[in-house]
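Per your request, structure below.
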């Protein structure tokens, strides 16, 4: 496909990232895989946290090291989605969060981007020596389940979380 490329955030993408945040807030959507972008007051605050979370030595308390990528259109340079790869799992992530979280902006959904973005992130997981990748989604999120299955995800089980049910999928990398 090659419609997307994964790019690490830098200050030169500030406007695109803040526009991404605005679109999600306006639509009342969940911003998964954005390293806490919704809660950051400013780009600079978010970017600083993103940088700290890259390494075990500087990751914020209670979190695991993670790398957040932007999925950029190879056609026009637009920010299509964001995806977060957690380098290892803590107890909560093992049950409910998994190694990868992602989101696609509403204006770009149902175009196959999530499947492509997840495929690209699995290559990054291999570089991090993560050979067995856990990805979760809400049972009601059929689109996300299809994205995971399209990338060879195998459903292990479902776990009740509050009023919802989390599906846990594993993808084994060669």
């Amino acid at each position: 496909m090659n419609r997307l490329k994964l790019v690490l955030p830098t200050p030169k993408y500030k406007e695109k990232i803040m526009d991404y945040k605005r679109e999600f807030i306006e639509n009342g959507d969940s911003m998964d895989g954005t390293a806490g972008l919704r809660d950051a007051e400013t780009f600079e605050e978010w970017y600083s946290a993103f940088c700290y979370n890259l390494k075990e030595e500087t990751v914020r308390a209670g979190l695991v090291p993670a790398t957040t990528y932007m999925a950029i259109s190879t056609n026009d340079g637009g920010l299509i989605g964001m995806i977060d790869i957690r380098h290892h799992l803590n107890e909560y992530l093992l049950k409910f969060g998994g190694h990868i979280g992602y989101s696609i902006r509403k204006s770009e959904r149902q175009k196959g981007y999530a499947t492509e973005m997840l495929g690209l992130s699995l290559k990054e997981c291999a570089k991090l020596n993560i050979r067995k990748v856990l990805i979760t989604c809400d049972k009601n999120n059929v689109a996300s389940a299809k994205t995971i299955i399209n990338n060879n995800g195998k459903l292990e089980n479902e776990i009740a979380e509050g009023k919802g049910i989390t599906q846990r999928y594993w993808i084994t990398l060669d």
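The mean pLDDT is 96.

Regards,
D.
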